[in-house]
């Protein structure tokens, strides 16, 4: 059986009282600022971020409840900061654990590569293993508390159209029992159904997964990097403590049968194993197959773990040829899929969601024109492309089946001649300060600060808008008109220098250390934490003029974007996503 992701048999088997109640009421309005189709991680981030900014949002999701199972199992510190700004991050990470390393071994268990996941980033641990339902529940709860966001679960989009002013979406009630009927002709001669509802918005965003209705409706094709490995995924709950070897995420590059395991926070564990060519996918989806694998490979049985989810995936690496068509946008798996070997599939989608949200906010509030939204794809496509290509290259390492080639691979790692993976990408084009700006496009820091007797992480105290952060007194360099424009757009000004109206206390020295590291006295950070530009205090007025000027229509990003459409991407070499980057669920148990 081949079915669209997620498979109808793959939904949570939790008791009904533990599943979030579906939204059965129709939306309170037919007209919105933004319609979000899809209510997974990327759609949740987008809907919450827009709702927190006061915009009218409709989220449409065909499933009547949240997913309830852990496809996503890894996030980094940047994504933890995203969650901080769209929900209760403590609730989201309640079942998580910091991850210190990710080990790659050959078939004999020899270490080929150790990926260092230790340290801190963005105010959090650099990496976490975590439980996806906790994250979705936390963001969903935030959305449910927003008066400006309507959520229609159990409704599916069936027809999309747009003109120069708005988009129109026809939606229809959907349930698993009616699967296959949605989108088919109804009682009307034009294919409509008596239960259909029509809604309009200024913009629509497809966050509806690899088999996206929005992307298909727009006629957007995808480019395929042809990474089509087939793996069995087994998510489990630990019934007792497992041996110490299971505590660290480990990939086994075994030419006989590639496999891996990783924690899912503190109480759960993921095991994956390649399904080899010629093997029965149906057999791989049986409990007998799973327990045989657990027993023979890991020495585990039903007294050790309980299987929560068993499913066979075909991984993919595909990218939509356009991420925008008029007033419609694509984010997350609707725009790009990747194999799980970097654990960055859903992370990339959540970055998409926050980046598009604040750009839409500026346009909807009238502080940027519609063309500013083109910077979304100009920025996000090259960033994703590097992660995607690296994931494909790592997949070729993990899935190498030729024994002699695997020996050569092992020797290359043993002698240090294997090419290192590229550095994690930054934003190289789009809404950034021009000129010599070596730190533009990198991530800004988040430390602990105190302001007006309140102490906490920077975003909790200041908020999630554009920030101008200085080590000096802003009044010594900015004009009254610049202050007025910054306030009008919604730019927060912060100074680590005592004694001025914008002063905060840099409690743990994060900003002192950052200014010293970049050799600057000020920086501007966007709401997605990306540095717009840095400079001395004397250069702050010019930085502010550039920040505001690009919004007004001085499109400095256009020249950058031309080169960004063909990103520099490493060629995949023969050398875990947790959405899982799969286009099709093949078999589920």
UniProtKB/TrEMBL annotation:
Alphabetical list of PANTHER family matching this protein: 3-(3-HYDROXY-PHENYL)PROPIONATE/3-HYDROXYCINNAMIC ACID HYDROXYLASE (PTHR43476), FAD-BINDING MONOOXYGENASE (PTHR43476:SF3)
Residue ranges, annotated region (Disordered): 1-22, 170-197, 564-589
Enzyme Commission number: 1.14.13.127
The entry's keywords: Oxidoreductase
NCBIfam families cross-referenced by the UniProt entry: PRK06183.1-3
GO molecular function terms listed in the Swiss-Prot or TrEMBL record: 3-(3-hydroxyphenyl)propionate hydroxylase activity; FAD binding
Name of the protein in question: 3-(3-hydroxy-phenyl)propionate/3-hydroxycinnamic acid hydroxylase
Gene Ontology process terms (BP): 3-(3-hydroxy)phenylpropionate catabolic process
Species classification: Bacteria, Bacillati, Actinomycetota, Actinomycetes, Micrococcales
Residue ranges occupied by any FAD-binding domain in the UniProt entry: 32-385
Name of the coding gene: mhpA
